[in-house]
Structures are given as structure tokens and as C-alpha cells.
Specification:
The complex is a heterodimer of chains A (533) and B (481). With 533 residues, chain A is mostly helical. In chain A, 73% of the residues lie in helices and 3% in strands. In chain A, α3 packs antiparallel against α4, α5 packs antiparallel against α7 and α14 packs antiparallel against α15. By secondary structure, chain B is an all-alpha fold. Classes of the chains: A mainly alpha (533), B mainly alpha (481). Chains A and B meet through α5, α6 and α7 of A and α16, α17, α18 and α20 of B.
């Protein structure tokens, strides 16, 4: 399960992981409160270097194997079998990249938006980035849980201090909801830990070891539900989504970008990485329920988004809808569906992140987010209009842009599994196009009839600079998605085979529970690497 | 009398040092002039440090003395270090508060030292008499400490209430102990265990168990014996509340573990459901009532009631992990809870009690360091990594899962999640509200040093808990077959 060391064994994951944290500590201890410009520059340089450091991971990644790469493993708390264990595979690779990219963008987009307590702000932002990267890199459950929880703290402060009018409510609601979900996951982790101990006599939180635990189907159901609570709240799946509009709307722009771009992906990532792998039988049992909730999320999110007068709320609800697609893709349990889901996580991070940036730009200029306060901006802000248009088309899945590839793959997976799901998903896409286009039209076109809007300035160089990388990626993924899909292909096939085989192998009678599952098409790459095990 | 019967000094060396120091403190208090009395702070801190240092060479030694009444083992040594840490931290955070509230310095510190001796006796006693004498020594000193703010009726009320209810509960406990003695014919725990085994469950034994649960339940502030805690915490001087909540709770746990896990081990089936119920009730009631508090000391009182519930999980499971987790959590509790009360001390100034949650409004602007410390203590109390409190709770819940007490684990994590709400309502006040007025904070060097120590302890034991877990596992080995 662990690939030979690349990059000469250089601890590149640790470097990527802890650079923001070190930067955060330097901000706290080495800068004075008044040095705001220096703090901003320093934070940006740190996140930029972090992004550059993460690029070799992407370039040196071996796409031919599902195995974990750049692995770092060292004992941490021997007494209870905790290891410092990092690694990336095709499932987490792009998410790490997305995190470092959006981390840098989140810093630079805050330069003028945040005008008080900058020191604490950039500390929180950098601290948050270490937490998020850790979630995607950790392969030890204890370590994973530490990062999973720790990241709530800076996010709480980001929303609570620099947020909008209802920030206090939104911040504690966000914290309580996610904490409530994750404590049950903690109990489930402990249950697996002791099952493994009883079976092998070894105390370990090592994910790859715990995978070998034989968990009977009844326990799988309960443990799956415990993990489900943590991940579904994070995603958020309907009906656990109510924290999201509050948190998104009240958070400062950078907070929304990180929330939508990265934080929500932790839930979907958790399903792919942990739920499917550890509880294959239960995962298959719950396919109908998960697909149902995903579809409800898609339709409900889109309908509610359509009704929003507030641009930021609209984008927030669109996340509920888009994440529904991701969940649907995962639980088609087809290679296309899951690959589409992972790619869609990246796409959503880019497009919704960009949408929040765009909302942030107009909000900074006009201090309102109500759609009715705008209109005709296209004439006044041509550059902005272009960026907004590309982002919006990416979000609704226009062919040629990234969103199309992800949604298409998910639809293929859905069609192969159950055409009714696919039908609903298509309906969701149509609704998505409707609310986005309508909102775009109301904001950008029509008469420039509000006098305040005539003085509005177009994007400045800094704003263009941080939008360009996102736009490039949108087009790149849309036109030539192969390298991205290739990077996850081996891992996705391997883990899907794992689900299939484990559930067949462990409990032949479990088949009775799986009327709707279509046999998987084995991927040759995965087969070859699977035999090495 | 043979030479073997001369009590081995190693078994009570830290106690002896503290006893000498406490007596010397009383004399010193008479010799010093009024303005010089704060020097006693340093003197007592030295004494506690000396006692702490004397523990180092004792590690790994096991011996029994005083005709089998008193032992030195890993368990007693772990708790002695814990009590001495609490005492040291309490001494460090006290001086400015003593001046503000005009509290007699010499008596204050000597009572803290005497009380610490009592706590240590409870942990080291393997005989009902030794444990009970320790309990009374600890309690009597604390009753007096609770009433030290003489001009504050709340303090007087706290002391009187604590004294009356405490005496009553001691009486009940003593009655339980007497019943046990009557049943077994011995006061030595190990001998009693044999007799309990032979006698089997009988009504008198069950009555004794109920009374012991009541008596110890009072001292650890567990529901339904918790009524005193909020009033006493609120009224007692800020600087000793941490000492009361952590020290006396841990000491009572030490005594409870000795009696229940040794003498009453054979009748675990009888006491286990009782402690199970007390644990669940404490977690739920403590957490839910804490949400409604507007006074931070009352809030922390209810949170400490919930903490008693968490720690009981470990006693109920009785596994190696469970018992060790009680000790791990207790040690984490030293840093995070005394730390939280230290912040209340810091906010107190002349004429202002400084213990309502509104007092914390806007504190982050005035004192970022103090606010950040309190955030760390509260994260730890909630059980969010990477803090010692997280490790403690993690380990407690792990023991519940392992031993199959899913109910305890579920109630535990739910109340932990709820507790975030009230801890972070204070954080919200500090960081997200504007300060209405200036805070006159002037931390003394001692208070600052104590804060640094407690933050460091909370984080270091959170990130590298290995040594603490190993020490706790070694300490509870005596209870395991």
C-alpha cells in the first residue's frame, strides 16, 4: 500500500503541511500589531511558497499506482499506537493542490477587505490551512481526527470576528454542528481500533492496518452511520445543511472561499477515503439512502438558491446542490461516477471559490450583496464581467469548462447505476443553469439604473491576478482533463474493487442487500497494481 | 519493637516536608511585619517545590509502612505530584488577589499546605483510617479557605454551607466505613477485600456501598451530591477555587479508587450500576445547567460536576485503560481548570469581583495573551485537540468503548459537544464584542509564570501525551490482576 519513496525521501508533505503553521507562529511572535502591510505580505509569501512547494508533489506523483506516495511514517504516541503517518494518493492529491492554491488566494483576496485585527486574521488563515492540509494527508486516524477538529477553531474565529452582522450566531452554529458530528466519528474510530486490537492484539490507529479489520455487517451499519454523521454534516448533505448558509453568508470573503473550496470537500473526501474503504458492506447497503439524500440536496439546493435575493446566499445554496452531485457520483460506485465526483470536488472548489471572490469584489465596492441593488454592471466593469461569466459558466457546467467534465462523468455513472437518479441529476443541472444565469443577468445586464453603480470601478490588478490562475485551471480542466483524471484513475479503481471484493468476500449473503449495484468494470491498471499486494 | 517497624521515611517524605513548611509558615507569619508578609508566598512556593523534588528519587519504589496503613507506590506518587502541582500553581496565582481582598497571608498559605498534606494522605492510605484522616484534614482546611473573604457575605455563606454539608457527608461516609468495618472486621483494604469476597453481597454491604457513593460523590461533586459546588465555587476566594475543584476532586478520586477497586472489588457488580448512573447524571446535569450560567465561577462549577462524570467513566469500566484515563484526565484537569480560574483571578480588582461572563468582554484587545490562554484552557476543557483535555477525554471514551459501555461514551461525547457552547460564549465575549470599559489588568510575575506553565502543560501533554499515559498506566497497575 505504500509506494517507494519519491523525491529522494524528502519530507515534502511535512514541509507543505507545516509551513503555514510556522508562518502563523512567526506572525504572532515576530510582528507587531501595527505592521499590517508587512503581515499581509509575509502571509502571502508563506502561502505562495507553500503552493510552490506543493507543486513537486503534483509533478512527481506516479499516476500508475494506487499506492500512497511521499509517505512519511514515524511513531508519535507509542503508548496507544498513534503514528505520524502522512501520504497522498490519487484521491487526495488534487485536494492538497486545491488547498494550497486557494490558501494563497484567500490571503491575497483579503488585503483590502480586512481592515481590523490583521495579525489575528492572517494567523487564523494560515493556521486553518495547516489543519485542512493535515486532513487530506493524514493516514493515521488519531492524526486525522486531530486535524479534523483543530481546523474548526480558526474557522470559528474567522467567521466570528471578521464576519457579517449575524456572525456570532453563525460562528457558534458552525462550530457546534461540526463538532457534534465529529464526536460520533471519534467513537466509531475507537470502536474499530478495539476491534482491530481484539483480532490482532495490536493497538494502532494506522488507517492501512485498521483496513484489515474484519467488521461484521451489523457493526458496519452502526459505524458507517457514525462516520456518516460527521461527514454528512461537513459536506453538508440534506438535511444537515442548515449551518452552511449561515456560515457562508456571515464569513468574510476569504472564509467563504475556504469554506466552500476546501472545508466542504473534507466531508466528501471522508466518504471516499474512509467510509467506502472501511465499511464496504454498509456502504453498499446505504446506496439508496445516500443517493436519495444527494438528489434531494441537488434539487432542494437549486430551488432555494433560485429564490435568494442575496448573491452570497445564492452561491451558498448552490454549494448544497453541487455537493449533492459529488455525493451522487460517489455512491454510484462506478469508476466514472467516483472520478467525476473527485474532479467535481476540485471544480466546485475552483468555481464556487471564484464565485465567492466575485461576490466579495462587488461587496467591497458597494457594501451590499442584494441582487436588486445591482444591474447593468457589465458596461461599467468589463473585466469583471468576463471573469464572472467564465466562473458562472464553469459553475453551471458549460462544455469546454471544468464543471462540464465533472458533471458529465457523474451523469454517466448515474445512468449506469440507475437512470432515475440520472434524470433527477439532469433536472438539477437545468435548475442550476437557470438560477445562475438569472442571477448573472440581473446583476450584469439591463440598465445601469442605480446611481451608486455608475461610480463602481472595474477589477484592479490584484483582483485579476488572483482570478487568473483559477480561470486558467477552469479552462484547462475543461479542455484537457486527462492529466487530472489520470492522476486519480488507479486509486479510484483500486478502492472500488476493494469495496466490491470486500463485501463479496466477507459476506456472500450481503449480495441480497445489493439489488441495484451494477458490477464494476475492472480497470487494468488497478488490477496490475492490485496483484502486487 | 524491631527496627523494621520504624516507619520508612520515604513513604511520607513529601508530606513531612510540607508539614514542616506549613508549621514554619505559621511561625514566620508571626515574625513578619504586615508589609513583609507577601514574602511568605515565595517561602511556601519553595516548600512545595522541595516536596515536588523529593518525589523524584521515590519513583519506582514500592513500600508499605505504618503497620500496613500507608504505602508508597506508583499510584500514590502520581497523585502526590498532582496535588503538589495544584498547590504550587495556586500559590503562584494568589498574591495579588490576597492583597486586593485583604486576606491574611500566613493562614491562607499554611491552610493550603495542610490541605495538600491531607490530599496526599488520601492517595497514600491503604487503610480506612488513614484515608479518612486525610479526607478530614483536607476538608477542614478547605472549609476555612472558602470563607476567607470576610467582608463578602457570599464567601461566608460558601464556607458555612460547605462546612455544614461537608460535615454531613463526612458523617455519611464515616457511617459507611463503619459498616464496612463491622462486616469485615478490618480497616485494611486488602484484608477487607477477602472478607467482602467471603461474605458476598448482603444488605449491609449494599447499604455501606450506597453511603460510600454518597460520601465520595459529595467530595468529587457528582450529581446528585453536587448542590454545594456552585455556591461554594461562587463564594470562595477566586484563588482557591481551582485548588478546591481540582485538588479535592482528585484526592477524593484517589480515595474512592483505593476503596472501591481494592476493598470493594469483589462486589463490583453492586457498585458499578450506582457509579454508572452517577456518571451519566453528572455529565448531563453538569453540562446542561452550565449553559444557563452568567457567572463564570458557577459555570466552571457545573463544568467541574460534568468532569466528575467523565472521570467516573474510567472507574466504572475498571480496565487498565479506564483507570489510567482517570489519572490522565485528572492531570490534564490540573492545568486547564486551575488555568481557567487563574484568569478569573487576573480579572479581579479592588471593588470588582470580576467573575461574571460580561467581565470578559473585549478582553482580547486588552490582553491578547491572557485571552489566548483562556481559549486554550477552554479548548482543553471541551476536549478539542491538541490539548491535554482532549487526550484525557479521548482516553476515557476509549475505555468506555473498549469495555462496551456505549451509553457512557455517547452521553460523554454529546455533553462534550454541548459544553463547547458555554465555554465559547466566554470566548465570544472576549474576541467578538467591543470592550465597554478598560480592564485594569496587572498580572504579577507569579501569575504570569503560572499561566505560562499551565498553557505549556495543556499543550505539551496534548501533543506528546506518551509519558503521561505511560506514568498513569504504571500507576494503576496495582489495581489490576
Amino acid at each position: 500500500m505504500i509506494a517507494p519513496q519519491a523525491l529522494g525521501g524528502f519530507p515534502i508533505l511535512s514541509l507543505t503541511l507545516f509551513m503555514p503553521l510556522i508562518g502563523a507562529l512567526i506572525i504572532i511572535f515576530a510582528f507587531r500589531r501595527e505592521q499590517t502591510q508587512a503581515i499581509k505580505n509575509f502571509a502571502f509569501v508563506i502561502t505562495l511558497i507553500d503552493f510552490l512547494v506543493s507543486l513537486p508533489i503534483l509533478l512527481a506523483f506516479d499516476t500508475s499506482t494506487h499506492q500512497f506516495q511521499f509517505v512519511e511514517q514515524a511513531p508519535w504516541i507509542d503508548a496507544i499506537g498513534v503514528e505520524y503517518f502522512l501520504g497522498v494518493d490519487g484521491i487526495s492529491l488534487l485536494l492538497v493542490f486545491l488547498t494550497t492554491l486557494l490558501g494563497a488566494i484567500a490571503v491575497i483576496c483579503s488585503f483590502t477587505a480586512i481592515e481590523e485585527r490583521e495579525k489575528e486574521y492572517y494567523f487564523s488563515l494560515l493556521f486553518l490551512q495547516t489543519g485542512m492540509l493535515g486532513v487530506f494527508m493524514a493516514l493515521d486516524f488519531f492524526l486525522f481526527y486531530v486535524f479534523w477538529e483543530i481546523m474548526l477553531v480558526p474557522m470559528y474565529f474567522l467567521i466570528g470576528i471578521w464576519g457579517g452582522p449575524r456572525k456570532l450566531y453563525a460562528a457558534i452554529k458552525f462550530f457546534l454542528y461540526t463538532l457534534f458530528g465529529s464526536v460520533f466519528m471519534l467513537l466509531a474510530i475507537l470502536a474499530i481500533y478495539f476491534m482491530h486490537y481484539n483480532q490482532t492484539g495490536v493497538l494502532t490507529f494506522n488507517f492501512l492496518e485498521l483496513l484489515k479489520t474484519n467488521i461484521d455487517p451489523t457493526h458496519q451499519i452502526w459505524l458507517f452511520l457514525a462516520f456518516f454523521l460527521a461527514f454528512a454534516i461537513k459536506v453538508p448533505m440534506f438535511p444537515f445543511h442548515t449551518w452552511l448558509p449561515d456560515a457562508h453568508v456571515e464569513a468574510p470573503t476569504a472564509g467563504s472561499v475556504i469554506l466552500a473550496g476546501v472545508l466542504l470537500k473534507m466531508g466528501t473526501y471522508g466518504f471516499v477515503r474512509f467510509s467506502l474503504a472501511l465499511f464496504p458492506v454498509a456502504s453498499q447497503t446505504f446506496i439508496p439512502l445516500m443517493a436519495f439524500l444527494a438528489i434531494v440536496g441537488i434539487i432542494y439546493g437549486a430551488l432555494v438558491a433560485m429564490a435568494q435575493p442575496d448573491l452570497k446566499k445564492l452561491v451558498a445554496y448552490s454549494s448544497v446542490s453541487h455537493l449533492g452531485f459529488v455525493m451522487l457520483g460517489i455512491f454510484t460506485m462506478t469508476p466514472e461516477g467516483v472520478q467525476g465526483a473527485i474532479l467535481q470536488m476540485i471544480n466546485h472548489g475552483l468555481s464556487t471559490g471564484a464565485l465567492f471572490l466575485i461576490v466579495g469584489m462587488v461587496y467591497e465596492r458597494r457594501h451590499t450583496r442584494l441582487i436588486v441593488d445591482y444591474g447593468g454592471l457589465a458596461k461599467q466593469m468589463p473585466v469583471f464581467a468576463t471573469l464572472f461569466a467564465i466562473t458562472m459558466f464553469s459553475s453551471i457546467g458549460l462544455p469546454g469548462l471544468n464543471g462540464f467534465i465533472g458533471e458529465f462523468l457523474i451523469l454517466v455513472g448515474a445512468f449506469r447505476t440507475n437512470y432515475i437518479w440520472a434524470g433527477f441529476a439532469v433536472l438539477g443541472i437545468i435548475l442550476g443553469a437557470a438560477y445562475m444565469l438569472w442571477a448573472f443577468q440581473r446583476v450584469m445586464f439591463g440598465e445601469l439604473d442605480k446611481p451608486e453603480n455608475t461610480r463602481i470601478s472595474d477589477c484592479n490588478g490584484r483582483e485579476v491576478a488572483y482570478m487568473v490562475p483559477i480561470v486558467i485551471l477552469m479552462i484547462w480542466i475543461g479542455v484537457y482533463p486527462k492529466p487530472y483524471l489520470r492522476s486519480m484513475e488507479a486509486s479510484v479503481s483500486y478502492w472500488l474493487n476493494h469495496v466490491q471484493q470486500a463485501s463479496v468476500h466477507r459476506d456472500a449473503s450481503a449480495k441480497a442487500l445489493l439489488p441495484s449495484v451494477v458490477p464494476l468494470q475492472a480497470n487494468p491498471v488497478a488490477d496490475a497494481s492490485g496483484k502486487e499486494e | 519493637m524491631s527496627s523494621a517497624e520504624i516507619p520508612d521515611i520515604r513513604a511520607y517524605l513529601p508530606e513531612l516536608i510540607l508539614l514542616i513548611w506549613a508549621s514554619a509558615t505559621l511561625i514566620l507569619d508571626l515574625l513578619l511585619r504586615r508589609q513583609q508578609k507577601l514574602a511568605i508566598t515565595g517561602f511556601c512556593f519553595l516548600g512545595v517545590t522541595a516536596a515536588l523534588l523529593s518525589c523524584i528519587p521515590l519513583a519506582g519504589t514500592t513500600l508499605t509502612t505504618f503497620s500496613g496503613m500507608y504505602v508508597l507506590d506508583g499510584f500514590s506518587l502520581f497523585f502526590k505530584v498532582l496535588f503538589l502541582l495544584v498547590a504550587a500553581l495556586t500559590i503562584l496565582i494568589s498574591p495579588r488577589y490576597l492583597v486586593i481582598e485583604d486576606i491574611p497571608v500566613g493562614e491562607y498559605y499554611s491552610l493550603i499546605l495542610f490541605s495538600t498534606i491531607g490530599m496526599m494522605m488520601m492517595a497514600a492510605g491503604v487503610d480506612l483510617l488513614a484515608i479518612y484522616i486525610g479526607l478530614e484534614l483536607m476538608s477542614l482546611a478547605i472549609y476555612a479557605l472558602a470563607g476567607f473573604v470576610k467582608r463578602d457575605p457570599k464567601s461566608i455563606e460558601a464556607a458555612l454551607k460547605y462546612f455544614l454539608m461537608g460535615s454531613f457527608s463526612s458523617g455519611i461516609l464515616l457511617y459507611g466505613l463503619a459498616l464496612l468495618y463491622g462486616l469485615t472486621g478490618s480497616t485494611q483494604l486488602a484484608v477487607m477485600a477477602e472478607q467482602v469476597m467471603v461474605a458476598g453481597p448482603n444488605p449491609a454491604l449494599i447499604l455501606a456501598i450506597v453511603m460510600l457513593v454518597g460520601g465520595f460523590g459529595f467530595k468529587i461533586a457528582a450529581v446528585p451530591f453536587h448542590m454545594w459546588a456552585p455556591d461554594v465555587y461562587e463564594g470562595a476566594p477566586h484563588s482557591v477555587v481551582g485548588f478546591i475543584s481540582v485538588g479535592s476532586k482528585a484526592a477524593a478520586f484517589a480515595g474512592l479508587m483505593r476503596i472501591f477497586l481494592v476493598a470493594l472489588e469483589p462486589s463490583k457488580a453492586q457498585w458499578e450500576p450506582l457509579l454508572w448512573a452517577v456518571s451519566i447524571l453528572s455529565m448531563l446535569v453538569g453540562t446542561l445547567v452550565a449553559v444557563a450560567q452568567s457567572n463564570i465561577k458557577r459555570m466552571l462549577a457545573y463544568s467541574s460536576i460534568a468532569s466528575a462524570g467523565y472521570m467516573l467513566i474510567g472507574v466504572v469500566t475498571g480496565t487498565d485503560i479506564g483507570l489510567a484515563s482517570v489519572l490522565v484526565y485528572a492531570m490534564a484537569y490540573v492545568f486547564m481548570n486551575v488555568g481557567a480560574f487563574a484568569l478569573v483571578v487576573l480579572l479581579c480588582r479592588r471593588g470588582e469581583r470580576g467573575d461574571t461572563i460580561e467581565e470578559f468582554t473585549g478582553l482580547a484587545r486588552v490582553s491578547p495573551v491572557a485571552s489566548a490562554s483562556l481559549v486554550i484552557f477552554f479548548l482543553s476543557l471541551t476536549g478539542i485537540p491538541p490539548t491535554a483535555g482532549f487526550v484525557g477525554k479521548f482516553y476515557l471514551f476509549a475505555s468506555a468503548i473498549q469495555a462496551g459501555y456505549i451509553g457512557l461514551a455517547v452521553v460523554g461525547v454529546i455533553s462534550s459537544a454541548i459544553s463547547l457552547y458555554y465555554y465559547f460564549s466566554v470566548v465570544m465575549q472576549m474576541y467578538m464584542q467591543e470592550a465597554p470599559k478598560e480592564h485594569g489588568l496587572s498580572p504579577t510575575p507569579g501569575l504570569a509564570a503560572a499561566l505560562i506553565l499551565m498553557v505549556a502543560g495543556t499543550l505539551i501533554f496534548g501533543i506528546f501525551p506518551g509519558p503521561l499515559i505511560n506514568a498513569a498506566q504504571a500507576a494503576v497497575a496495582i489495581f489490576l490482576p
